[in-house]
Amino acid sequence: MTAAGELDAREAPSGVHAINIAVVQTESRPGQWQRNIDDVAATVRRLAAEGSDIIVLPEFFASGYDLEGDIPSVAETVPGRTSDALAGLATETGTVLVTALPHRTPEGTVTDSSLVVGPDGLLALGHKRFLWGQENSVFAPGGQSGLLVPTPFGTIGVVICYEAGFPETVRDLARRGADIIAIPSAFGHPRLHVWKLLTRSRALENGVVVAAAGLTGRTGGGPRFAGHSVIVDPRGRTVAELDESVGAVAAVVARNSISEARREVPYLKDLLRLGGIAEHTSTTEKTLERN
């Protein structure tokens, strides 16, 4: 298993010419762990049988997203029951699964943590750094935003929900080798327009495939979730999207579309060629000092 921030960029696996990817959309059902796991397992088995290699699941799909509840009581260690169940499912189906769960560290700290498992078991665990609203009173922030994970099907960068709104995090993952950005989420419906904008923007800005899986419905009488789980290609075009129904969608994206998109709009190349934005920033600072 690899912790956040400890990976170098990797080449795409030899012979992998297409990215077969899916997103799953579920309701938030606190206190129904077994039902939540069983429902997702049936969906993952179906998607795998239809050819999906990478499957992104919503944030807290197993525990339910209920910040008014007793989150510390449902926070899990890793390995733990959710990571074990998903690792077994990934081994059974030959897939890579990405999600986020309430996690209890060995020191007893509770974090909102990204989890990636593959055919060989647990691959990586990261911790959400940028917390949204009430999350700040429930979770401790992680030490680094974003998780980079080489897998048999390509290098995945993971950001959790609100973190996808930080272009710096996704750009850092892309520059370090991510060709897929997975976003397990519990995004709020009042900001659905933000969700639709940022998922396409992060894909276009970095020439990556974005796979964003969110919750739908409500937790009891709580806020409504956005749904609209989506797969976006490296040119920023939506290739598959759900509405607010429970379900899943899949897509096949040609791997060479990543390099083609980056040639057409060379953001990453020009950042590397010019050494980033340091010179521009320095000039701006001098101008401000003179004024």
Automatic annotation (TrEMBL):
**An example Gene Ontology molecular-function term:** hydrolase activity
Pfam assignment, any one: CN_hydrolase
InterPro entries in the record, alphabetically?
C-N_Hydrolase, C-N_Hydrolase_sf
**Start and end of every CN hydrolase domain?**
19-255
Gene3D superfamilies noted in UniProt: Carbon-nitrogen hydrolase (3.60.110.10)
PROSITE patterns linked: CN_HYDROLASE (PS50263)
Sorted alphabetically, the keyword list is: Hydrolase
Q: What class of enzyme is it?
A: hydrolase
What's the EC number here? Answer: 3.5.1.100
- Coiled-coil regions listed in the entry: none
Q: What is the similarity comment for this entry?
A: Belongs to the carbon-nitrogen hydrolase superfamily. NIT1/NIT2 family.
Q: What is this protein called?
A: Nitrilase
Species this protein is from: Rhodococcus coprophilus
Please spell out the taxonomic lineage of the organism that makes this protein: Bacteria, Bacillati, Actinomycetota, Actinomycetes, Mycobacteriales
